[in-house]
Write a structure and sequence with these properties.
By secondary structure, the protein is mostly helical. It has helices at residues 28-41, 46-52, 59-70, 81-94, 98-103, 110-127, 135-158, 166-179, 188-194, 203-206, 221-224, 229-232, 235-243, 276-282, 285-298; strands at residues 250-254, 260-264. The chain has 15 helices and two strands. Helix 4 (81-94) packs antiparallel against helix 7, helix 7 (135-158) crosses helix 8 and helix 9 packs across helix 13 (235-243). The chain binds a DNA duplex through helix 3 and helix 6.
Amino acid sequence: MDVYERGFIPEIPHSEEEMDVRKGPWTEEEDSMLKAYVNIHGEGHWNSVARLSGLKRTGKSCRLRWLNYLRPEVRRGNISLREQLLILELHSRWGNRWSKIAQHLPGRTDNEIKNYWRTRVQKQAKQLKYDVNSQQFRDAMRYVWIPRLIERIRASSDSPSGQPSTNAATTTTYIDSISNITTSQITYAKTIGSVQVDRSLMPELSGTSSDSLDTQVSSVTDLTDCYNPQNVSNFPNNFQNGSGLYQENLTATWGRDDEVEFQATEEQSNGWLGGGDSMDTVWNEENIWFLQQQLYDEA
DNA sequence: AATCGCGTCAACCGCTTCGCA
DNA sequence: GTGCGAAGCGGTTGACGCGAT
């Protein structure tokens, strides 16, 4: 005889106030309960989930735990170079629209991307003594970090000891797709497509070039190590040496107290990374789509 | 061995948006 | 048009792990 036959109906709390709400880290048991419930009833109606599953958690908490951790699609582990590239770009377009950015990175959650941004990107800005939203930092991202990321992706693909698999092939294709954008305008796409990054400026590149596309990038060395005063004056030349197409007037000057001041004297800076038509050309929908497809392939 | 500092990331909080009656 | 509850979103916090001292 079960409780229902005896006329006993278990009390179901109707509000969070009626529940002895639990907070803090989830236990394995709670995870199992939530998984089991969602597997049977599906996602959504999170307040009901909280009430009916027996979990002493708020609906919000259940939703968050499911979306950020328990969902089968959730992809854990280091943010790959391609993913970083995509995050930088999409953030330049949409700013802190984390969930929107996450939609374009298969298996990644908004929380993860937000954390990446705060722990890595903002740290870079801090180390350079820039505001993360400042034009200087945007320029640094645009002219240093992104080309460097692309270079690293390329290095990974080119390396004999790297990943000779489809990853390498698709990466090369992607880079080529950037390089081969045809437009009547001088484009940043061409610039970064043919830029020759001086390996001496990038210690870890001057050694092995076999780092995996999924290697976690050192958060400290990313931008700052190739952005020190000795190297700064070389950047415009590096770009120009690469293609001869680089026409934007980027000047690096010395500020007081040895602070580097980058000045990109473009006429217009629309997007986060400066934009104008140059970045728009690189990051057209086709290229973003292409990069996304690679990420879906990886996932 | 102890503790300190720092980085990471899961989880919470408060606000906004959405959907429905 | 309005009110209300649910869901979603972004900012922030705090626990934890790990390396340095």
